[in-house]
Amino acid sequence: MEIYCKQCGQKLKQGQGFCTHCGAAVENSEPVGPETPSPSRRLKSFSGKGISKKSKIILSISVIVLAAAFFAYKIAESNHKPSKLVDHFNKTVEQGNAKELANLFNSGQTEMKVDEEGAKQFIQYLKKNPDEYTSMIKKLRNDARLLENGVEVVKPEDEPFVSIEKSDKKWNLIDQYKIVPHPFFIKVTVNRNHSLLYIDNKKMGYIEKDKERTFGPFLPSEHTVKAFYEGKYANVSDKKELDPKTDATDHNLYADLDLTGDHVTIYSDYDDAVVYVNGKSTGKRVGDIDEFGPVETDGSTKISAKLKLPAGTFKSNEVAIHEPDQEVDLHFDNLPLAEDADDMDSFTDSTNTANELEDVLMSHYAYISSHEYEKAFDLFSARQKQKRNYDDWVNGIKDNYQNDVDSFSVVYSDSNRATVSFHLTSYDSKETGTLKQEWEGTWGMVKEGDQWKLDSPAIKKINSEVIE
């Protein structure tokens, strides 16, 4: 065992009495080496002063918070499982809770705003079609299982009414999911200008002839589309019930509404006679009419004709309309005979001129009503065309959809010039309703080639009002 000098640390030999290096006496010849602390000293050194009470509290709170956060995370993760969302959707529908269903749909998408009424219609549709509902829930549950197992759900070509999809993460940690309704759009066409449209009893505004309009988006459910046409002699309506299960193509529902109405055929022994309905002139001659309508067929519509002769104006028999496609035969009895050929020629020329003038005026306003603007513009004289810009003229009348010429008379005529007086009621479509206006005055007319043209107007407005 080695020993060392306690003064200088010099290594000593066994039994040496003093240090040969520093001269110090060696009292005990015990070995000297690195000091090894006793067990009690080691324990005291480890313990030191010990952990403070405050540190112990902080440590305990940290452990509790971490544990609570972990359990909260697991609970939130469980509550946001796709299968739980499908269960909630299923329960909402079965309970008929339209308000909660609307909230559920709106929280999952922004493409359309679902209101409570729309959600109610959707619930009613599913309950009316239990096979569709069962199939939908079955697919949602299957897709939910796939999502929970980390499998991506592939959208089918035939997109379902609703689907379950991944949403944004909650707290940037937890996967969230949403129930997404796939909207439908309704495409509507009509065969009458200025037809008023309703979808599910909601007024959608006016729609024009052969111009398809698209409305939506709508939830997948049955939808009722109605159109109304207010004709001069009859009101016509048509309705279509649309089912997304049977009537949809690529999530579009189509409604082609027929507003033709009931028509009649008119005959007379005088083609130049002007047709009247319920005592008012139509502005059309018998010879110009193939079919006439739409008309009411309940007996309230009565048709007659008037024929202008030098000896006066004569009225035909009157026929009440009781059925569609009715044939109306108008005849004139006991007409005066011309005393000689000259009188007959004068009578014929006068009648033809008056009819030609009336036909030009009536046709002009009828073309405006049907939006055949080029035809209407072509009935102006060359001088009148030069004074008007076609596009500006069209912009000023594009809201018009109906013109009723209530009265007409020839004030003056010769072989090249004429003046006619008339009274007109016009109807224009405005955002606040229909603008009804009454006009009266004269048109000076000139003959260009073999056709009369509208040349110089002197017309004033005598009344104006907005109606529903």
UniProtKB/TrEMBL annotation:
Domain TcaA second: 82-180
Ranges for domain Zinc-ribbon: 4-25
GO cellular component: plasma membrane
TM region(s), chain numbering: 57-76
Alphabetic keyword roster: Membrane, Transmembrane, Transmembrane helix
TcaA 4th domain span: 261-332
Designated name of the protein: Zinc-ribbon domain-containing protein
Organism in which the protein naturally occurs: Bacillus smithii 7_3_47FAA
